[in-house]
Each structure stands twice: as C-alpha cells, then as structure tokens.
C-alpha cells in the first residue's frame, strides 16, 4: 500500500497537516488452527498486506477517525465509558483504553487508515488494525516504553473487552513480531517463540479466497472454545492430582478416560485439538529437514480435522480443498477461524498455473462467483513508515 494514498485522504479529511504513518500486517498461519486459546503451538507469518494509518495528535481529548475504505468518520471522547457504536471504531477505542491501562498518557488524535488485508479472508485484518494503533500510540504518547508483548496483549484485550470476540494471541503476535522471510513457532502457553526461515524452493504459498463468510462465525467460535473448556473441566475432575489448565496439558489417554463425562460433540472438538498439537510439532521437524511433502500431508490432515471434527468448514472450503487434491497440490487446508475465508495451499511451482486456472474455473461454475487468489509474501511486523 502506498503512503501517498493514505496521506492524501488524511490531509483532505482533517486540517491539511500531516502526521506520522504506521503500518501493521495481516498474517497467514501455516498450521496450528484453534490451538492458540488451547495453550498449544501455532505457526504464523506476517504478510505483505495490512493496515496503514496516518496519526497526528490534535491537542484535545477526542479521537477523530476516518476509515478510508468504508468512507466513514467517527469521533469519540477518550473518557467515554461506552465508546463508539461503529464496529471498526471500537478496535481503535479499545486499543486507546488498553494502552491507557498500561500507563500510556493517551491524548486525542486525528487519524485516517486504509487496509489491503482482504476482509473476511481469515488474514486477521482486525489484529492488524489493533497492532497498528498500539504501535502508533506507543510511539506518539508512550516514548515506546510499552513492550511488544504488552502491545500484543492489549490487542487481545481489545477483542475480548470491546468487540465480543474471545480470541487467542496468535493474530496480534504475528502482526507485531513478524519478520521478513520467516515463520514463527509460538508456544501460546509459555509465549516462547522461535523464527524459522521459510524459503520453500520450488514451491509457492498461495491463498484461495472463497469470498464467502457465513454469519454464524463469532458465536460458533465461542461455542468451540466452550467445548474445549468443558473437556478440560472433566479432566480436572478425573485427575485432581494433575495440573490441567488447557488441552495442551492433556493426552490421548486422558481424553479417552473422560469421553463418558462429556458430550460426543465436546469430545470430537478435543480430538481435533490434540491431533493438531501433534501435527504442528511434526511440521517443525519437517521444516527443519526441508521436507515440504510432509508439511503438505499434515496440512491436508488439518483440513480433515477442521472439517469433520471441529466442524468449522463449509461446502465452499471443502470444494477448494478437493480441487487442490485433484491438481496434485502438496498441501491445502482451511486457514483462519473457518465458516468461509481462505484455503492456504503449498503448490509446486510447475503446477501453480494449472491449479489456479482449474480452481478458478471449477469454483466459478459451481458457486457462481470467482474465488480470489493471493500469493503470500512473508514480511515484517508493525513499524513506523514515515
């Protein structure tokens, strides 16, 4: 995204003066889905698409925000306990409140922002928005004293406290800590992480966006999380001598032992989470060995689990996965929360053109609209641009 595009709108909609420009990326996740809130491992990377915002303190206690893409302007007072009604503005409001809790003396500012993270594609545009404003507020009002981790947690708290989404920490982590040419294995329990060079020579990583978003997503997300917590509660009762905080602390024998104490649905959800924990570690070993065929195999296994065990797929995503298999794609799976959005595909370069042509043609014939295709470039995290 071009700075000039954001700057021209900022100048037009405010007082003609310029501010500082900040950017934060969206993310992909190679493997490790719905594991972050279960204390497991995830494997994200920041991408070259994100949110860019121009921000200038305005000497008042009011934030005046303009969404360039939605052509919508919202004002709110930093001391207003209720905050704005517009959903996009609540992310900015929430970050202001959470950064204040961290001791930053947040003052009023004017801001305009735009994003080229595809909305609804499961690339975490909301986390990019939160991270961008956390970084900007830290720079403008906090002397950059707030740590990267605290900015990540402020983004998560924004979703929990102001937007009604009980998310984990992966999306905000990837947006803040991203590094060009590297994926990151994050341990969501200890918060330890490691950069893994991701340079799959001879392969391409590509997202195929179904361009559908089924509305039950946020309520279903919270139900899945509740299922996992129900299984943990049953295990705690069965094994009082063990520390079981999340499904990360569980094993297959423990799940088998509590099957009679939880619903069939809850047990199925937990089965997926335990399987995904094993798959992430297998992918780590495969990446270290440069074995992208095993990486791909594990991606397909994850798709099966998300579709049949966690039940967060939909007809469109399953169709995209089937077409990938037909075309000899090395790995393919749902990426993101589910119920729409993208598949992430690891494709041999020599098969890439045929796959894109075939998936576009077959998907359009079946569903009446074209899928969108995004090549993935692994890029840097939150930063000041100008």
Q: Tell me the number of structural domains.
A: 2
- Identify the CATH architecture of the largest domain: 2-Layer Sandwich
CATH topology of the largest domain: Ribosomal Protein S5, domain 2
Q: Strands across the major sheet, in which order?
A: 5-4-6-3-1-13
- Write down the secondary-structure element order: HEEEEEHEHHHEEEHHHHHEEHEE
SS field, number of helical segments: 11
Major pleated sheet? 6 strands, mixed
Q: How would you describe what is shown here?
A:
This protein is of the alpha+beta class and 386 residues long. It has 2 domains: 3-199 and 379-384, Ribosomal Protein S5, domain 2; 203-375, 2-Layer Sandwich (Alpha-Beta Plaits), CATH 3.30.70.890. Helix content is 44%, strand content 23%. A hairpin with a 4-residue loop joins strand 4 (62-67) and strand 5. Helix 3 crosses helix 5 (170-177).
Walk me through the topology.
Layout: H1 3-13, E1 20-29, E2 41-42, E3 44-57, E4 62-67, E5 72-77, H2 87-101, E6 109-115, H3 125-141, H4 148-162, H5 170-177, E7 182-187, E8 193-197, E9 203-213, H6 217-238, H7 252-258, H8 264-288, H9 292-308, H10 315-326, E10 331-335, E11 340-348, H11 349-367, E12 372-375, E13 383-384
Parallel strand pairs: 4-6
Antiparallel strand pairs: 1-3, 1-13, 2-7, 3-6, 4-5, 7-8, 9-11, 9-12, 10-11
Helix pairs in contact: 2-3, 2-4, 3-4, 3-5, 4-5, 6-7, 6-8, 8-9, 10-11
């Amino acid at each position: 995204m071009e700075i000039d595009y954001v700057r021209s709108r900022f100048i037009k909609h405010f007082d003609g003066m310029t501010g500082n420009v900040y950017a934060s990326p969206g993310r992909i996740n190679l493997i490790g889905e719905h594991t972050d809130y279960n204390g497991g491992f995830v494997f994200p990377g920041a991408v070259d698409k994100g949110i860019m915002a121009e921000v200038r303190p305005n000497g008042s206690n009011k934030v005046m925000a303009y969404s360039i893409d939605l052509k919508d302007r919202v004002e709110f007072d930093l001391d207003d306990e209720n905050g704005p009604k517009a959903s996009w503005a609540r992310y900015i409001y929430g970050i202001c409140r959470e950064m204040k809790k961290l001791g930053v003396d947040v003052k009023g500012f004017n801001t305009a922002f735009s994003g080229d993270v595809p909305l609804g594609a499961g690339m975490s545009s909301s986390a990019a928005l939160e991270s961008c404003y956390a970084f900007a507020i830290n720079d403008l009002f906090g002397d950059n004293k707030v740590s990267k981790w605290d900015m990540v947690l402020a983004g998560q708290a924004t979703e929990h406290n102001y937007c009604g989404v009980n998310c984990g920490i992966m999306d905000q982590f990837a947006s803040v800590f991203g590094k060009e040419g590297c994926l990151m294995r994050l341990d969501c329990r200890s918060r330890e992480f490691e950069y893994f060079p991701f340079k799959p020579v001879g392969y391409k990583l590509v997202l195929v966006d179904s361009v559908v978003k089924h509305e039950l997503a946020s309520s279903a997300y919270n139900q899945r999380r509740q299922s996992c917590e129900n299984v943990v509660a049953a295990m705690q009762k069965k094994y009082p001598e063990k520390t079981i905080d999340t499904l990360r602390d569980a094993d297959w024998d423990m799940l088998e032992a509590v099957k009679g104490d939880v619903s069939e649905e809850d047990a199925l959800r937990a089965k997926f989470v335990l399987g995904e924990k094993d798959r992430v570690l297998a992918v780590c070993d495969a990446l270290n060995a440069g074995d992208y065929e095993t990486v791909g195999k594990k991606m397909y296994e994850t798709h099966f689990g998300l579709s049949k065990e966690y039940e967060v797929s939909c007809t469109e995503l399953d169709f995209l996965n089937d077409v990938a298999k037909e075309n000899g794609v090395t790995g393919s799976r749902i990426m993101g929360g589910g119920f729409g959005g993208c598949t992430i595909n690891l494709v041999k370069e020599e098969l890439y053109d045929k796959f894109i042509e075939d998936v576009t043609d077959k998907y359009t014939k079946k569903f009446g609209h074209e899928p969108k295709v995004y090549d993935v470039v692994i890029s840097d995290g939150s930063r000041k641009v100008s």
